[in-house]
Design a protein that fits this description.
single chain; alpha/beta; Rossmann fold; seven-stranded mixed sheet; five-stranded parallel sheet; 40 helices; 20 strands; 58% helix; 9% strand
């Protein structure tokens, strides 16, 4: 459903003589519309309608309306040929067989037919282009027939005609249109609208006067013809934020203050970070838009190439969405960036970090060859992001502006003053550009240009408004132009910006309302809950409105947003990828108030979005859910759904998951309080992923704090307390204190037995952890004894085919092998593997893991070739069954590399570990213990393969990182020091053993 349908007609009327151009121009126009503008033919045959009879012409027009209505699509009708006006609004388009003096049954009475078809069919907008003589009567007829009827007043219609009451010459209207399509218009927006053609038509077609009629308040940006070719060099070309930039720069009054601040930004191109600070509505985003589109400035000293990439942050932004936005633009605009980004994404080279922003932006930028000109990036509206996301974005900006390998990068940041963000230590000492809001006089001049009210009268009105609120700025001016003078000044006097927003909303209600008032209120409530900027997919808005009990089609949603005018921000307007939101953050609160007054509360709106997110499939909805779903779930009070959404959004990359939970934890705390069960769950996840990314001390500290909070609320004997204690013991052991982990698990086991009983599954799990850490602490024999007893109890309590029982058998065999009983371990694993296959199947994760343990034991017994074959077989299965990035797959790759090296293939071991390290860096991060072990093994195999210098460098770099992470007394640090000393000695005396 939806889409854009075009019917292009070229007609030579036999009775009036051949013109010679209509058929070719119609063919060319149809081609441009379909190839450039995403229009598809409204006819069964993909092509223009050429030389139709009157019957064919009328039938095809009616069929096009019917098809567009069925598809809920926009419709464009274009005619190139003869036109005849007979007076009083009667205007006819002549078919091939029409007479010289037509009547309703011998030609197309265009306005009458359009009016009748609009009575019968609801379209997603209509564009009519008429290149014919005497078209003035079509304009006056349209004005009379289409705008004086209440039921059509909300329709979105664009009518563009070639001339007035005179002749149209040589197809100049269509020829000029085609030329504009090809060249674009530098002073217009992302897409070319029918009204944009007026100026070039007046310049090129000097013997005729074109006319335009738009039946939609303020126009509908969704009714565009083709993308504006002159905008292709913009950083935001094709992005949803292009519509936001259009809105900011439409009818822009460039003040002297704005020029000066813009010059200040440009004149300090040496500063790596420039921060533009100002209150709401001061024009920060407008300034950023002018950096992106400098041709809107008279005699600009720079071009659109100045800004390589630009991102406008919103409440739905995440560090992931920011990274992808900048990366996508840089791939399109910066020579050499795309292939480097592809190589990094494929884990090529020596990637040194696993943070997504690093992978998508920082690392590719760092690897670019130095350029003559700096790469300028814009990040506007950091203050709009959720607090946790904001911290990550600030950190990313600081990295861009401070890393030694990014000296060719410049960042321009927009921050709202009063939020405290510009006062952060991270922004201390940077070049700060203060932007003051527009003055009363400047706003009054901008508004007065709209109509008869004088500057002085508007100055009084705007002055009253700004005395009550300084917010709004240039968007405020646009808002004022959409309200009648008397209502605008009354609202300004009564209540400032909030009253003005409410008054603008009330302008939509009445006999010409685009939908029932309660349906409009539902859409408003959902948009306000989404926030500012083009961030919500249009179909999600529709689905959320349905949850609220109102049924609006996509077409009707567009009717509503067009009627709301300057209140709404739109991206990718008129397409299936359309995004919507409030135009300004300060519009959100009064919009929510007005929706509540009508009967739709803020909480209901958040609930509707939450429900739609959970119940509707689709990539765009899923993407929005990842970015903003948690906020809606928490606002509605469904914190459990927020936790579930985050858990479902986890990836195989530990750094992604750490950032995910870190971004949202502040909102959990703010909404629920730190001791709420779901907030504690979020804290638990974050602490876990801190450990998984190698931040072991941070994980220990987080679990200690969480344990304190949980004990204070639930008491010491709560099951959740036991779970946190087990995780704390695990990460303490991982941070270098395995004996401490044993002691903590011993205490935890005693408490579990006392509270839960000896046969409780959680008690058995703690016994498994204790036995494992007993082995990790160096006492493999004790680990075997404890696993033997645990297996006996698991068989009794859980049964022989339980997953935990099978896992215990595997673990027992592992520690038997570690204790020296490899034959017994192999026999035990062979039996366990047979039962895993029988109970779980050959493709189960435990089955695959048991195969891997068995292959390792066989290799230790000297069966290297057999082990290598088994690992090669495993690696043909693991990526397909559990994924190429699963940790078990990575472990198998490491084992294969090691046993190839042990079998004499030293180069194969080096190559295998080098590739493995790249993937561990990408997936687990640079500080994860597995990544550090891969670095250790790679350095060792390099040395064994003859690259002693490489081994020394590898171990030296590894030692520095281990010291940073765990301190000098950790066993891994000591082992690394020993290896470094060993290979340094080899470097000095190559012949020594």
């Amino acid at each position: 459903m939806g889409g854009r349908l075009a019917l292009v007609v070229g007609s030579e009327c036999k009775a009036l003589g051949e013109l010679g151009f209509p058929l070719q121009l119609a063919t060319d126009l149809h081609s441009r519309l379909t190839t450039l503008g995403d229009w598809t033919s409204a006819r069964p045959d993909d092509g223009p309608l050429l030389n139709p009879t009157t019957r064919e012409l009328v039938a095809e027009v009616k069929a096009a309306f019917a098809l567009a209505a069925r598809r809920q699509a926009a419709l464009l009708i274009s005619f190139v040929g003869h036109g005849v006006a007979t007076g009083s609004g009667n205007f006819f388009l002549l078919a091939h067989d029409s007479p010289q003096h037509p009547e309703s049954d011998t030609a197309l009475h265009v306005i009458q037919v359009i009016s009748e078809q609009l009575d019968r069919h609801a379209l997603d907008g209509l564009i009519v282009l008429i290149d014919a003589c005497e078209t003035q009567e079509s304009l006056s007829g349209a004005a009379r027939h289409l705008t004086d009827r209440i039921e059509l007043a909300a329709r979105r219609i664009e009518l563009l005609i070639a001339t007035g009451s005179d002749a149209a010459y040589g197809g100049c209207f269509t020829r000029t249109t085609l030329a504009v399509f090809d060249q674009g218009l530098p002073l217009r927006g992302e897409n070319l609208m029918p009204v944009d053609l007026l100026d070039p038509l007046e310049v090129e077609c000097t013997r005729q006067v074109p006319g335009h009629l738009g039946i939609a308040h303020g126009g509908d940006p969704g009714l565009w013809l083709v993308p504006n070719a002159a905008r292709r060099d913009d950083a935001v070309w094709g992005r949803p934020t292009a519509g936001f930039v259009d809105q900011l720069t439409s009818s822009l009054l460039i003040t002297e203050t704005l020029r000066q601040r813009l010059a200040e930004v440009l004149n300090d191109n040496s500063s790596r970070l420039r921060v533009v600070v100002g209150p709401a509505g001061s024009g920060k985003s407008t300034l950023m838009s002018l950096l992106i589109r400098p041709n809107l400035l008279a005699r600009a000293r720079f071009t659109s190439e100045y800004i390589a990439a630009a991102a406008f942050v919103s409440s739905a932004s995440s560090i992931e969405s920011l990274a992808r936005e900048l990366s996508d633009q840089l791939c399109r605009r910066v020579d050499g960036f795309a292939p480097i980004a592809t190589a990094v994404a494929d884990a090529g080279g020596d990637v040194s970090t696993a943070e997504l922003f690093d992978l998508l932006v920082l690392t590719p930028l760092a690897r670019l060859e130095s350029t003559w000109e700096p790469i300028n990036l814009v990040v506007d509206g950091i203050d709009q992001a959720e607090s946790g996301v904001r911290k990550l974005i600030v950190s990313a900006v600081v990295d861009l502006a401070s890393r030694s390998d990014l000296t060719h990068v410049r960042v321009i940041v927009g921050i709202r003053s009063g939020t405290g963000i510009d006062e952060l230590a991270a922004f201390a000492g940077v070049h700060r550009i203060e932007l003051s809001p527009p003055t009363v006089g400047e706003l009054a001049r901008a508004v007065a240009s709209r109509g008869p009210t004088s500057d002085s009268e508007w100055e009084q009105c705007v002055g009253q408004l700004l005395r009550q609120s300084e917010a709004g700025g240039w968007l405020l001016a646009r808002l004022l132009t959409e309200i009648t003078d008397a209502r605008a000044c009354k609202a300004a006097a009564d209540g400032g910006l909030n009253a003005l927003v409410k008054e603008r909303i009330r302008c939509v209600f009445g006999t010409a309302a685009p939908a029932p008032i309660d349906s409009v209120a539902a859409a408003l409530a959902v948009l306000a809950a989404a926030g500012s900027g083009p961030i919500m997919p249009i179909e999600l808005l529709r689905d959320a409105v349905v949850v609220l009990g109102h049924h609006l089609s996509i077409r009707e949603v567009r009717d509503v947003v067009v009627a709301l005018g300057a209140l709404i921000s739109r991206g990718n307007s008129g397409t299936r990828q359309e995004m919507l939101g409030m135009a300004h953050q300060d519009f959100v609160s009064p919009t929510q108030d007005e929706a509540t007054r009508i009967g739709v509360s803020v909480v209901e709106a958040h609930h509707a979005i939450s429900t739609a997110i959970l119940s509707v499939d689709g990539d765009r909805t899923a993407e929005y859910a990842r970015a903003a779903g948690v906020r809606h779930h928490l606002a509605y009070g469904d914190s459990a759904a927020a936790v579930q959404l985050l858990a479902a959004s986890e990836t195989v990359r530990a750094a992604d998951n750490r950032d995910l939970w870190a971004a949202w934890l502040p909102l959990f705390v703010e909404t629920l309080g730190s001791v709420h069960p779901d907030c504690r769950t979020a804290q638990f996840h974050l602490a876990h992923w801190l450990g998984e990314t190698g931040e072991l001390n941070a994980a220990v500290t987080s679990f200690e704090r969480l344990l304190h909070d949980c004990v204070s609320v639930n008491g010491p004997d709560d099951v959740e307390v036991f779970l946190i204690r087990g995780s704390l013991a695990h990460w303490r052991g991982s941070s270098g204190d395995p004996r401490g982990a044993v002691r903590e698990f011993e205490c935890l086991l005693a408490d579990c037995v006392r509270v839960l009983g000896p046969d409780h599954p959680d008690t058995l799990d703690v016994r498994d952890d204790l036995a494992d850490w007993r082995g990790e602490s160096g006492d493999a024999i004790a680990a075997v004894a404890e696993y033997e007893q645990l297996l006996a109890d698991s068989l009794r309590v859980l049964g022989p085919d339980d997953l935990d029982t099978l896992a215990t058998r595997r673990n027992l065999s592992y520690w038997r092998g570690a204790s020296g009983d490899r034959a017994g371990a192999i026999q035990g694993l062979e039996l366990a593997l047979a039962d895993c296959v029988r109970v779980l199947g050959a493709d189960a994760t435990l089955t695959l893991n048991t195969r891997q343990n068995l292959a390792n034991l066989r290799a230790h017994e000297g069966h290297l070739e057999e082990a290598v074959r088994e690992f090669e077989s495993l690696l043909s299965d693991l990526p397909r069954l559990i994924g190429p990035d699963h940790l078990d797959t990575l472990a198998a790759r490491g084992n294969l590399a090691a046993w190839r090296g042990a079998g004499g293939d030293l180069a194969g071991a080096v190559s295998g570990y080098k590739e493995l390290l790249a993937d561990r860096l990408r997936i687990q991060g640079p500080d994860h213990p597995d990544t550090l072990r891969a670095r250790h093994n790679l350095a060792s195999w390099r040395g064994l393969n003859g690259d002693v210098a490489g081994a020394v460098v590898g171990f030296a770099e590894l030692l520095a990182d281990r010291l940073r992470l765990v301190g000098p007394d950790h066993p891994d640090v000591i082992a690394t020091e020993e290896q470094l000393a060993h290979w340094k000695a080899k470097q000095v005396s190559p012949s020594s053993d």
